[in-house]
Write a structure and sequence with these properties.
The complex is a heterotrimer of chains A (about 475), B (about 220) and C (about 300).
Chain A: H1 4-18, H2 22-45, E1 53-55, E2 58-60, H3 62-91, E3 95-97, E4 100-102, H4 107-126, H5 130-148, H6 154-185, H7 196-199, H8 208-226, H9 234-241, H10 244-271, H11 275-297, H12 303-323, H13 327-355, H14 366-369, H15 371-384, H16 391-405, H17 410-434, H18 451-465, H19 469-480
Antiparallel strand pairs in A: 1-2, 3-4
Helix pairs in contact in A: 1-2, 1-4, 2-3, 2-4, 3-4, 3-10, 3-13, 3-18, 3-19, 4-5, 4-10, 5-6, 5-10, 6-8, 6-9, 8-10, 8-11, 9-10, 9-12, 10-12, 10-13, 11-12, 11-17, 12-13, 13-15, 13-16, 13-18, 13-19, 15-17, 16-17, 16-18
Chain B: H1 2-18, H2 22-38, H3 49-78, H4 90-110, H5 122-139, H6 143-164, H7 170-198, H8 214-219
Chain C: H1 5-32, H2 41-50, H3 62-79, H4 96-117, H5 121-152, H6 157-163, H7 173-190, H8 209-212, H9 219-243, H10 252-276, H11 284-304
Classes of the chains: A mainly alpha (about 475), B mainly alpha (about 220), C mainly alpha (about 300).
Chain lengths: ~475, ~220, ~300
């Protein structure tokens, strides 16, 4: 049944390419998103029979259930925003922005790519075979490239090119990692599939040397897609140039999926006693990503790039969390980052529509002319920096606690310092943008296009103050596959 | 025989590093694809008959015919003849190629293959082909050269996979081939757009997006 | 009788070497649709030149007079270490390949000194270019010899080309083919052939080898020409010895004839190449030689594995 999570959006995506009627297509997008989210959430919170689902190379364990539920919820909100956004785009066929005339790609292609993108992410979460995971990962790159190039203008073309090339090369390296894995499994006799189930089976020992080499390649390869520094260079460009719907999905959903692919490999390494080796690598990339993000957040002049660098930071935190041994904190943080970043990008889209500029210096006094956008934007920025009572505070607190108990006092100090720097950088920018004398006479958009942002913020708030037993079970189930609290 | 193919691959590598003409690079990639496609014929593996023929044919078709043809088409359409200003000159690139081969041999000496393989050179050659592709992507400015570099990188990986691990599910390998195939097409189409939009395909001049340079960008 | 084999070797080389120049010229003439000079033209030339006297400029010193005989002596010494078909080298000891390369280098050094001694700008330019190229070609030659010694397990030329015999091909044929190819490139550049230098050019500005001998005359030129012919022979013996090692044909005379034929074929190939290709731009030559060096390093890496 769970395979429907892949097939349904895939079929709908193909259909969207050929449907001529705009309204019908938008309705299809939203309907599929609703159904997908409902089904994924149901599977996540109430896993049928406790038994993991298996079919061919597909399967649905706690980890994939959890990640699917997160990106599916985000997709639902993003698709709601997309419908409104596309309607708005249609009404102004030719628009001046950044001194360049641009016209948008056909809406059908955009909607189709969105749906196929969802399908590829679901496929990635469902795959039990490492080759299949790789295929799904590369497919997400190819499908999301047109999303970034939706605004047919020079800068987005440049971003698309960098995204395509850097991510394809990264994913090619990950393919090397997968092949190394296959070599390391060859000692188990012929016909050994490189799927999680057979490699985690009883009595399977993998060649540690090749597995280590494979993990390095996979971490660098999928890490490129995940936006870990120093392979993150495409990320700020792509996330700032894509339309805000796509930015929200790229940032909130796709990065997590890349993380999931790395975690699959990590599972194998854990089972073969290479946990500490992997955690060291996670630590290096995690700290480096947070540091790089901190440097670029201070003094950032473009608010969508600011959000993009914040994503780099949070990917660093996810790795850091695994490194200090709290997979639970990492899982929670992944969900919080998804929801908050989705909300922030949707706000950013509204601000961009109102102010017609992505430069921070051009945006002043959002709160006065677009009160809803201002409130949500400022709250979102505070929340993503780890202010209570939002979920990010809780997860970052859990990670801090784990860092303290990890033995090395330097870890929590560095972690806190970097979070502090980022907090100052982001809230400073947030205050300057939200308050003060408005730089334009009046804002535009209705409340409706901000509604999904509100929902996402509420979701994160919910995660911060109340954790129902079913959700708790889902998170710790996913974390248990990664060695639990350690 | 496999040794001969591997040697040929290395020579083609050096040639692609030394040439700045894009049509020559595309031809090199086609020959490389053909050479790699023939490798399964000389493996003493369990796969024989129709399946073997299918693998060889599909690989040859994709790597040696369709993709090079498409790249040639793209090259004619965007009208670039040669790499005008590569970041690294031809001689230095060739020396890099040799260094890459040495590195690849060093790495593979540290990573012994745990089973019997048809030639001890497969891993180092595959690694060096990939490194070469990587280097071409970094050192060339023309978008099409970078696509060619990506294809060389993929060739190296494909060689590794097909020479060592042919027994893995074929469906997955075909899926990978398909992904690369579509990837090259998407990249090619992006190159069309770049050439139409910017009237050049020199990626070193695609520098509008950067941090901390808004004022400079405005003034351009 | 067995002890005399090396002498046969020497006799063949000394008598047949100038023939190769005739072969090259005949092939070039054939490609140009002409009849061409007789095969023995270089013998006639040398004979004619030896009968002439030499004119020495007052500005030249002792090096100018010393260089041609000294160069010839160096080349003749190098020849002693080269096996020829069924015949082993006259002299051999482990590591003699280094000596041979340096003997060739010493001959070049003589030429350069003589050219500089004239004080003429054309000769100085030729000498500078020659020195420039030799930096690359010598390194490439060394790399090739290293590859050959790895393949044969011997560090003397006699061991590589004669004693090892067909065993050298058991290691890795494709790699050895690359070595043969690179050796051929070394042959071209060391003998100042197209595409590195054009022996037929009539512009002193573009010459290398011919420019260096502009001021010599009579017997000196004869010695230069003869030394050049022997150098061609030596460098052609390396790929020829690799391609058709001793033991291909069991009988001695057949093998010698085969060897001679291979060298003549090398000469013919050179002639054909010269008819089809143009001289490279000067800046391209180091690039080409770098590529050759890269190839030889690749071969070495493959063989050393």
């Amino acid at each position: 049944m769970a395979i429907l999570l892949f097939l349904a959006p895939f079929a709908a995506g193909l259909a969207a390419f050929v449907i001529k009627n705009d309204r019908l297509r938008r309705r299809l997008l939203f309907t599929v998103a609703c159904a997908h989210a409902a089904f994924a959430l149901y599977l996540c919170l109430f896993p049928p029979g406790g038994e993991d689902y298996r079919w061919l190379w597909f399967g649905f364990d706690a980890l994939s259930r959890y990640f699917t539920a997160v990106f599916s919820l985000l997709f639902l909100c993003a698709s709601f925003y997309a419908v409104i956004y596309l309607k708005g785009e249609k009404s102004r066929p030719c628009e001046k922005e950044e001194d360049l005339l641009f016209h948008n790609a056909p809406e059908a292609a955009f909607t189709g790519c969105l749906l196929v993108f969802l399908a590829c992410m679901s496929l990635l979460a469902l795959s039990r075979h490492f080759g299949l995971i790789w295929i799904a990962m590369e497919a997400t790159t190819l499908v999301s490239a047109p999303l970034i190039y939706f605004h047919r203008q020079r800068s987005s073309l440049e971003a698309t090119w960098k995204y395509l090339l850097i991510c394809s090369v990264g994913i090619a390296l990950a393919l090397f990692g997968n092949l190394f894995l296959a070599v390391s499994a060859s000692g188990q006799g012929p016909g050994m599939e490189i799927s999680i189930d057979s490699l985690l089976g009883p009595g399977v020992r993998l060649d540690p040397l090749w597995l280590k080499a494979g993990f390095i390649f996979v971490l660098v390869g999928y890490g490129t897609k995940m936006g870990l520094a120093p392979m993150h260079t495409w990320l700020p460009d792509a996330h700032s140039e894509a339309p805000s719907v796509a930015s929200a999905l790229l940032s909130g959903a796709l990065l997590n999926c890349a993380f999931l692919a790395i975690l699959r490999f990590y599972q194998l390494c854990l089972a073969n006693g290479l946990g500490s080796f992997c955690r060291e690598l996670f630590l290096i990339f995690g700290i480096l990503s947070m540091a790089v993000a901190a440097v670029f957040i201070i003094g950032q002049s473009d608010y969508k790039r600011l959000l993009a660098y914040s994503s780099v930071e949070h990917m660093g935190i996810l790795c850091f969390a695994v490194a200090v041994g709290t997979a639970y904190g990492s899982m929670l943080q992944a969900a919080n980052h998804s929801f908050l970043k989705g909300a922030l990008f949707i706000c950013a889209g509204n601000i961009l529509a109102g102010f017609r500029s992505k430069r921070i210096a051009d945006v002043r006094g959002i709160a006065h002319i677009m009160p809803w956008a201002g409130v949500l934007w400022f709250t979102g920025i505070l929340a993503i920096c780890g202010m209570p009572p939002f979920g990010a505070f809780l997860s970052e607190w859990i990670i801090l606690k784990a860092a303290f108990s990890a033995g090395n006092l330097l870890l929590p100090v560095v972690y806190l310092f970097l979070l502090g720097v980022i907090f100052i950088g982001m809230t400073g920018t947030g205050i300057r943008m939200t308050f003060g004398v408005p730089s334009i006479p009046e804002g535009g958009k209705s409340f409706l296009s901000l509604f999904p942002a509100l929902i996402l913020l509420l979701l994160s708030l919910f995660l911060g103050i109340y954790m129902p037993a079913a959700l708790e079970g889902a998170v710790s189930g996913a974390a248990a596959l990664l060695g639990g609290e350690g | 025989m496999v040794d001969g193919i591997l040697m040929l691959l290395v020579l083609l590598n050096l040639f692609s590093l030394g040439s700045t003409r894009i049509s020559a690079s595309i031809r090199v990639v086609a020959y490389q694809g053909a050479a790699i496609g023939l490798v399964p014929l000389f493996l003493p593996g369990k796969i024989t008959g129709g399946i073997l023929a299918a693998i060889v044919l599909v690989t040859l078709l994709v790597k040696a015919v369709i993709l090079p043809w498409f790249l040639r088409y793209a090259q004619k359409r965007v009208n670039v003849r040669r790499e005008e200003k590569p970041f690294v000159g031809a001689s230095t690139s060739i020396l890099f190629g040799v260094a890459a081969l040495g590195t690849a041999f060093f790495i593979s000496s540290r990573l012994p293959i745990p089973f019997a393989v048809v030639s001890p050179f497969i891993v180092p050659v595959a690694l060096s082909v990939s490194l070469t592709g990587f280097f071409i992507i970094i050192s060339r400015a023309e978008a099409l050269s970078q696509v060619v570099g990506y294809l060389i990188l993929e060739n190296g990986i494909y060689l590794f996979g097909i020479a060592l691990l042919l027994e893995q599910p074929l469906l997955v390998e075909l899926g990978m081939l398909l992904d690369v195939f579509v990837g090259i097409f998407v990249m090619g189409i992006t190159v069309f757009h770049i050439s139409r939009e910017f009237e050049h395909t020199d990626t070193s001049r695609l520098s509008g997006l950067a941090d901390w340079l808004p004022e400079v960008r405005r003034n351009e | 009788m067995n002890n005399l084999y090396p002498l046969f070797n020497l006799i063949i080389a000394l008598t047949a070497a100038p023939l190769m120049s005739g072969v090259i010229n005949r092939v070039k003439a054939f490609f140009a649709g002409r009849k061409g000079p007789p095969l023995l033209q270089l013998y006639f030339d040398i004979g004619k030149l030896l009968r002439k006297g030499a004119v020495y400029s007052r500005t030249t010193g002792v090096f100018f007079r010393l260089a041609p005989p000294a160069g010839l002596v160096f080349i003749l010494t190098a020849l002693l270490f080269i096996p020829c078909g069924a015949y082993p080298a006259v002299l051999f000891f482990p590591g003699d390949m280094v000596l041979v390369v340096y003997l060739l280098g010493a001959q070049r050094f003589c030429m350069l000194l003589a050219a500089l001694d004239t004080g003429s700008s054309f000769e100085g330019m030729g000498a500078s270019r020659d020195a420039h190229f030799s930096v690359f070609s010598e390194a490439v030659l060394f790399l090739c010899l290293a590859a050959m010694s790895v393949a044969s397990g011997s560090v003397s030329l006699n061991g590589m080309l004669f004693t090892a015999g067909g065993r050298i091909w058991q290691v890795s044929p494709p790699v050895l083919l690359v070595v043969v190819f690179v050796l051929y490139i070394v042959l071209l550049v060391e003998n100042y052939r197209v595409p590195f230098d054009d022996p037929n050019t009539h512009l002193e500005l573009t010459m290398i080898h011919e420019a260096m001998a502009l001021d010599h005359g009579g017997p000196d030129i004869a010695m230069f020409e003869y030394a050049a012919a022997l150098k061609f022979w030596i460098l052609a013996s390396l790929p020829a010895g690799l391609l058709f090692p001793y033991g291909m044909k069991p009988d001695f005379f057949g093998n010698s004839a085969l060897f001679l034929g291979v060298i003549a074929l090398t000469a013919a190939l050179t002639g054909a190449l010269e008819s089809c290709a143009a001289r490279l731009r000067l800046v391209k030559v180091p690039q080409m030689l770098t590529a050759a060096a890269a190839l030889s390093v690749v071969a070495l890496i493959f063989l050393a594995k």
